[in-house]
Specification:
6-stranded mixed sheet, 4-stranded antiparallel sheet
Length: 373
């Protein structure tokens, strides 16, 4: 794999920001070399009942837009896909290591975890290392995203806490950054707090954008969420894996933590976990809410970003798998847990198969026209 010279340069020691090695000042994307349809269709019988429009960008570490679906420069909220870059200021500055944290804490900081006992235990430990507790987390409680996590809470009679929030690891790391900088931990989630400003700068640098080009809103967990084009999201992931391969230590540690501890990034029945396990460490993958997903093939230095326009989760995973299959990154045979996402069946209340959910082509589009008279 060819690593661009700009990414191969080492990072000066003691650098305190989350910037990538030799961060690009800006990038302009030329028209894609190829265009494909990633729309996901839901059939019932011989007709298409629903269609989910999918936008996507495929970008390599040099900034070449290799492929697109619909609008590759559609600006959307990056949601939890930004977590590998939000941890960078703490990691690159040495604050992460000063706490004695390792691969588990790093994986959880990048995670949208399932709220299983192992996830909760690590988040609890991170807070204890800071002399803080659950109440210091700005995220709200919610039911665990993994079915096992939800079952454990239900069967044990536990109350749901902020530690069960899928973003509790990210929040614990943000509290660590506030402590490292000598800034207040109260209000660390607010857009003007230095922790959130650092995250915004890191996201801008990795995606090759000016900071003021990054839109800022409030994410589901209460911290800043960043809005940027899909192509720049894909570029950031391509640069991340290229920098990791080239020897940039923080990049390598993030990628290694996510691919080496995929259970901590998701959970026992979470898509990202199953995918990264199946791909043997060659795909780093991060889900986001509302149909956003960003991922990269490590040995090829290629990044991908998708957005299901209507935010429907059922269209998200088939689109991810279709792109990875097109680039030869999936194992053969495909594990059952992934195969069911390639073409999910639609059943009625009697359990009978009456349709399917899959990435559709032109022939399916023709049948869609028929349904509209």
């Amino acid at each position: 794999m060819l690593i661009p010279d700009a990414l191969a340069a080492p990072v000066p020691p003691g650098r305190s920001d989350g910037h990538p090695p030799q961060a690009a000042v800006g990038v302009g994307f030329v028209p894609p070399a190829a265009v494909r349809c990633l729309d996901v269709v839901v059939t019932r019988g011989q007709l298409v009942e629903s269609r989910h429009r999918v936008h996507a960008a495929v970008v390599d570490a040099s900034g070449a837009l290799l492929e697109a679906a619909r609008d590759p420069e559609l600006r959307v909220w990056w949601r939890s896909c930004a977590k590998p870059f939000q941890i960078m200021p703490l990691l690159r500055s040495g604050g992460f290591d000063a706490l004695g944290w390792g691969v588990e804490e790093l994986a959880l900081a990048c995670a949208s975890h399932g709220g299983e006992p192992e996830h909760v235990a690590i988040a609890t430990r991170m807070l204890a290392d800071l002399g803080l507790e659950e109440g210091d987390l700005a995220c709200g409680p919610h039911e665990p995203l993994a079915s096992r996590g939800a079952r454990v809470v239900r069967d044990s009679g536990q109350r749901l806490t902020r530690l069960h929030n899928n973003c509790s690891g990210k929040h614990a790391a943000m509290l660590a950054r506030a402590r490292q900088l000598g800034e207040p931990t109260v209000g660390y989630e607010r857009p003007l707090h230095v922790v959130q400003q650092d995250c915004r700068v890191a996201v801008a640098q990795w995606s090759a954008m000016a900071t003021d080009q990054i839109a800022v809103g409030v994410d589901g967990c209460g911290v800043s969420v960043f809005g940027l084009p899909l192509a720049n999201m894909a570029f950031a992931y391509a640069r991340l894996v290229a920098a990791a391969v080239a020897g940039d230590a923080p990049s390598r540690r993030v990628v290694s933590a996510m691919t080496g501890e995929p259970f901590l990034v998701g959970g026992s029945d979470r898509f990202d976990t199953v995918l990264m396990e199946a791909c043997g460490g060659n795909v780093v993958c991060k889900i986001g809410a509302e149909g956003v997903h960003t991922f990269a093939i490590i040995d090829r230095g290629v990044g991908f970003a998708i957005k299901v326009e209507d935010g429907t989760p059922r269209a998200q995973f088939p689109a991810v798998l279709a792109l990875l299959a097109a680039y030869g990154a999936l194992p053969d045979p495909l594990p059952e847990a992934l195969r069911e996402h390639v073409q999910r069946v639609v059943r009625n209340t009697r359990g009978e198969v009456v349709g399917a959910i899959s990435v559709g082509g032109q022939d399916v589009g023709d049948r869609w026209d028929l349904t509209h008279g």
